[in-house]
Amino acid sequence: METAGVIQETYNIWSWLLPLISGAIGALIGTYGGSYFLHWKQEKKIQNVRSMAIKALGIFKEYAQHKKNYADSANEFNTKLNISEKRAVVVALHKLGIPFEVPTKDTFDIKSIRFKDITIDKDEIIAMIVQIDNGNCDNLFFTDIESYFTTNLRLNAVRNVGKKYVEEVHAKSWVEKEKPNTIVNPVDWYKQFTPGELHTILVLRTQLANTDYFSQNGRADSNKIKDLIREIEIGLWDNYLFYDHESFTNIQAQHNLANVVQGMIMMNQQQVNKTTPKTEIVESN
Q: Could you list the residue ranges that cross the membrane (predicted)?
């Protein structure tokens, strides 16, 4: 009887313990199994997006072998990558250094993405592929393209106007031999700009009135012009591009007036010094 009681007691213990153990094991398997599945699914998704980015870079790499420009690859890029693939990788590619042409007058068209007319460097493309493959750009995938490219729309538009002035006017100007401090602009240069664009570049135009940008033959120095354009692109001239011309003119006028007044005071002081006899102080004997 005692043995039967022990068996019954043991059975009772396992009858409620087994469901707890099986439940705990099930929960453990479910938790870790679910986490593993989610991780596997996310990793697969990231790998697919990386493949899309590398696929796009492969297009540029192919064109780089023939020493062509990014603009030449635009048609193939838009053909081989569908809209979903572009939405996934374009921002990451731009962050890596692919020179997408950012629109300033029209909306961003994902169906027909454009590139700047810059020669493709094969070594740079290979380095970008390594960055993608190592996962260094995973956080940039799936960033909204439209908001990314239109956030700084005004900034890009203003800088493009500045670059336009440098390329179409300043780079085509010259310094007269008879007047080495006079910069001559092309005839009717202002007709290339809208009234709004003219207002934007007036302060920049004043600040660029410097013969240091020109060679001894009087023509613009191409290397210095390239450096100037690069400076505009990275924002070093933003203060002048965004400076209101009327405010700038007023400050210049005040500065010139202050110089005139100071000059008059200095002249009067010199005259006083000439007419007023100086008193000499000597030691007594």
A: 16-38
Is residue 121 within 8 Å of residue 68, measured between CB atoms? no
For residues 149 and 97, the answer to whether their CB atoms sit within 8 Å is no
- Name residues whose C-beta falls within 8 Å of residue 83's C-beta, 6 or more positions apart in sequence: 110, 111
Buried b (16+ CB within 10 A) or exposed e, 21-45: eeeeeeeeeeeeeeeeeeeeeeeee
Distances (CA, A) of 136 to 39, 143, 274: 18, 15, 75
* CB crowding 204-220: b at 16 or more within 10 Å, else e: bbeebeeeebbeeeeeb
Q: How do residues 99-128 score in pLDDT, each as one tens digit?
A: 988 766 566 778 888 998 889 999 999 999
Judge contact between 239 and 207, C-beta under 8 A.
no
- Classify 100 as helix, strand or coil: strand
Per residue in 124-164, pLDDT tens? 999 999 999 998 888 888 888 877 877 677 888 898 899 99
Q: Residues 277-280: contacts with CB within 8 Å, 24+ apart? A: none
Burial of residue 70, with CB atoms counted within 10 A of its CB: 0-12 exposed, 13-18 middle, 19 or more buried: buried
Measured CA to CA, the distance from residue 206 to residue 33 in angstroms comes to: 68
Q: How long, in residues, is the chain?
A: 285
Q: Looking at this protein, which amino acid is placed at residue 138?
A: D
Q: How far apart are CA 148 and CA 81, in angstroms?
A: 19
Q: What is the DSSP code (8-state) at residue 140?
A: G
Residue type, 63: Y
C-alpha distances out from residue 186 to 163, 165, 190, 194, 199, Å: 16, 11, 9, 17, 19
Q: What one-character DSSP code corresponds to residue 205?
A: H
Q: What is the pTM of this model?
A: 0.52
List the beta bridge partners of residue 214: 220
Distance CA 73, CA 59 (A): 7
